[in-house]
Amino acid sequence: MTASPPPPMPRSRRSAGDRRTQLVQIGLELLPTTPIQELTIDAVAARAGISRSLLFHYFATKREYYTAVTRAAAEFMLEHLLPPPGAPQEDQVPGMLDRYVGWVEAFRESHLAFVRGAGGGDPWVAEVYEETRQRLVEVALTALQLPDDAPRRQLVLAWFAFAEDLVGSWADEPTLTREELLALLRDVLDRLVLRGR
């Protein structure tokens, strides 16, 4: 006599936190080819295997969902840009610049939409964007071994604006080699920082 197969296990329901995480992860997976403002709730819900109305059970509004995805993408970018633990001081800034250029190369459209969305008056993008830039300024000042004061913050923020514009346009039309681009970014940063000393 053969043993009968065990009864099927009941499908476990995801907790609200797990489902929110899953939905944000789907947004992150779509970002390399779809800027955040172009993500459709229907596409995200279909990919998650849930209805559109159920997605709004976990995120009250489309804006709340977009903000969660944008914030998660910004955190992912920050983690990518940060120097690895134990990195020699002299390698930290060059490494961050190299990783930033690589990030824009990989996620150009989404990064451009993030920067333009912040400048275009989308308050939910602008808030995340400002938080991200302030944290990057702190990391840059630490890597450069500079005090965190108002004049230097202002100079590094101005450099970030320059870097975003230059790297974004370079990714679209590379008129410099990658090495030349990295050298230019570092040269401008060093000159600004020197003026602030």
Report on this structure:
The N and C termini lie far apart (86 Å). The chain has one domain (16-196): Tetracycline Repressor, domain 2. It is mainly α and 197 residues long. Helices cover 73% and strands 0% of the residues.
Number of structural domains: 1
Major beta-sheet overview:
none
Please state the second-level CATH architecture. Answer: Orthogonal Bundle
Question: Assembly state here?
Answer: single chain
Unreliable stretches covering 5 or more consecutive residues: 1-12
Q: Could you name the CATH topology?
A: Tetracycline Repressor, domain 2
Give the percentage of residues in beta strands: under 5%
Note the topology.
Elements: H1 16-30, H2 41-48, H3 52-58, H4 62-81, H5 89-106, H6 108-119, H7 123-143, H8 150-172, H9 178-196
Helix pairs in contact: 1-2, 1-4, 4-7, 5-6, 5-9, 6-7, 6-8, 7-8, 8-9
Keyword list:
about 200 residues, mainly alpha, Tetracycline Repressor, domain 2, 9 helices, about 75% helix
Compact description:
The protein has one domain (about 15-195): Orthogonal Bundle (Tetracycline Repressor, domain 2), CATH 1.10.357.10.
